[in-house]
Amino acid sequence: MIPKVAYYNLTSEYFEEINSGEPFINFPGGYPREFDFLSEKPCSDNWNPRIFAFALGNWNRKKYSDFPVIAGEHRGASIRVRKLLESHFPGLIEFLPFRVRTTIGTVIDVEYSLLHLLKCAVAVDRKNSVLLPRQTSFSRPTRQDDCLLEKVVINSRKLVEPICRVSGWSPYYLFREDVVQMLTDEGLVPQRHRLFELVELC
Question: Where are the domains of the chain?
Answer without folding.
Answer: 7-198
